[in-house]
Design brief:
Elements: H1 20-32, H2 35-42, E1 43-55, H3 56-64, E2 70-79, E3 82-90, H4 99-115, H5 122-129, E4 132-141, H6 142-151, E5 154-159, H7 167-170, E6 178-179, E7 204-211, E8 217-224, E9 234-243, E10 267-270, E11 278-280, E12 295-297, E13 300-302, E14 314-320, E15 328-339, E16 350-366, E17 368-373, E18 383-388, E19 395-401, E20 408-415, E21 422-426, E22 434-440, E23 448-456, E24 468-471
Parallel strand pairs: 6-22
Antiparallel strand pairs: 1-4, 1-5, 2-3, 2-4, 3-10, 7-8, 7-17, 8-14, 9-12, 9-13, 9-15, 10-14, 11-13, 15-16, 18-19, 19-22, 20-21, 20-23, 23-24
């Protein structure tokens, strides 16, 4: 996912000596002629976690009393001993729809599409028809949101835009150069302190895009991890994008209004456990002031990714009404990120470390089935190598680590501009990315030394960094 910081700004208007009724008129133009500005100024997007699950009937009564721009209900149910977490996007403009019955029909569609089962046992039918709301994402006027919060017992409230903190608040050392330690005098091909980040991605899976047994269309994304390398604060998003530059798409391409920007799915579900805090991802664009329309995301994320079991077949499922075309192109990515702040488990609190390509952009036509495997990627090269702080016997080598995927960063040196490169050793896996330095001691005085670096892992090697030289005193 992208970093979800919703920026709500008010335009400043400078008025000089005009009547009060003109002031009112100008302000009205500024806030109501531009739909985005008025929505941002008067709306909130809030995720509420309930003290205890409540029946959908009780929740809908409260919702009916407080008009909203949009709402996503979250619940879960069991089918054939499998726990399924699900999301239902309520179309608040469609007053004729029976939300509870439609929710149930969408659960049945999931089972029919994925399992091929339409005739349910009495126990399965009872489980599917029991809808207890655990969480809800609410978009609308603050007064309506406050009304819901006052009528239902809520244990936690996350408001979009209020939880985000800067990277400097999370780790004040990220911007400062850190000292790297050379691990011995030979090349080191493995390091024990951590794992390259690409290992956090699932290693195999299958992408499906088909018409649904109950009308509309769906995408099912199967994936499997052979091991779970996520840290406790890390997130994962299985990012599905459809091509929409031509404004023709296989699934429904509409979104809820900015700043919500949630895809107008009919229904979404995953077998990732509740402990992984699954969420339906938004389509907020990179500029943070509109919804993305060129590449349409249909993505479910996990805010506590280390809770996803390895060696288990998982899936995400998103169902929509029919799009405006019968075929399309898609790409599949995996995003490893972190919660920001760590106490927030929503989509807008998931900040990315890196996005990896699983199925390349627009290489596959849908509807259809596409299986895939993922074995990682070679690391990016270090950069910004420079040599400073000369003494008679030492030089300081500065560099930037640009990769999350190294098992080692190797450093080579040559004496004089025309000398031969010699491998000095490696720094192992450095702590994420950023600026580093290493003090090369024991050097001869008044001698020029040149340095270059490269990153390696089990997949391959990066290119070399730039070369930099320095002369001792």
């Amino acid at each position: 996912m992208n970093n979800y910081l919703f920026l709500f700004t008010r335009k400043k208007v400078f008025l000089f000596g005009i009547l009060s009724f003109v002031v009112v008129a100008v302000i009205s133009v500024l806030f109501f002629a531009n739909g985005k500005v008025s929505a941002a100024a008067s709306s909130q997007t809030v995720k509420v976690t309930l003290v205890a699950p409540v029946s959908i009937d009780a929740f809908l009564v409260v919702m009916a009393k407080n008009p909203l721009d949009g709402i996503i209900l979250e619940s879960s149910f069991m089918f054939n001993k499998e726990a399924i977490q699900d999301f239902y996007v309520v179309n608040t403009k469609d007053r004729s729809k029976n939300v509870k019955e439609d929710y149930i029909q969408n659960r049945k569609a999931l089972i029919a599409d994925l399992k091929g089962i339409k005739e349910l046992s009495s126990d399965d039918a009872k489980s599917i028809e029991t809808i207890l709301i655990k969480e809800a994402t609410i978009m609308g006027q603050k007064s309506s949101i406050d009304g819901i919060r006052n009528q239902i017992k809520v244990s936690k409230v996350d408001i979009a835009g209020e939880q985000m903190v800067s990277a400097s608040q999370i780790d004040g050392n990220k911007a400062r150069p850190r000292e790297a330690k050379l691990l011995g005098d030979r090349a080191i091909t493995t390091a024990a302190q951590t794992q390259p980040m690409y290992l956090s991605l699932p290693t195999s899976g299958t992408a499906y895009f088909y018409p649904s047994a109950y009308g509309g269309r769906y995408t099912q994304q199967n994936m499997r991890w052979t091991a779970n390398y996520f840290a406790p604060e890390e997130t994962y998003e299985h990012k599905v994008y459809l091509y929409n530059y031509d404004r023709k798409t296989y699934l429904d391409g509409t979104s809820t209004a900015y700043p919500g920007c949630y895809p107008m799915t009919t229904y979404a579900a995953t077998t990732w456990p509740a402990a992984s805090y699954p969420y339906l991802d938004t389509r907020l664009s990179e500029n943070l002031i509109s919804c993305e329309i060129d590449e349409l995301s249909y993505t479910i994320g996990a805010a506590q990714a280390n809770a996803i079991p390895a060696n288990v077949d998982h899936y995400t499922y998103i169902r929509t009404s029919n799009g405006n075309d019968t075929s399309d192109k898609f790409k599949l990515q995996g995003q490893v990120g972190y919660r920001n702040p760590i106490t927030c488990y929503t989509t807008w609190c998931s900040s990315k470390y890196k996005i990896y390509s699983i199925i390349p952009s627009w290489s596959t036509i849908i509807p259809g089935t596409q299986s895939w495997t993922y074995s990682g990627q070679a690391p990016e090269a270090p950069s910004n190598v420079s040599v400073t702080n000369p003494t008679a016997t030492s030089l300081r080598v500065n560099f930037t680590d640009n990769t999350y995927d190294e098992t080692n960063i190797l450093i080579e040196r040559k004496t004089g501009v025309s000398g031969s490169w010699v491998l000095l050793g490696g720094f192992g896996i450095l702590n994420k990315i950023g600026n580093w330095y290493w003090n090369n001691t024991g050097l001869a005085s008044q001698t020029t030394y040149c340095y270059r670096l490269k990153a390696i892992n089990a997949v391959g090697s990066s290119l070399y960094s730039n070369e930099a030289c320095g002369t001792t005193l």
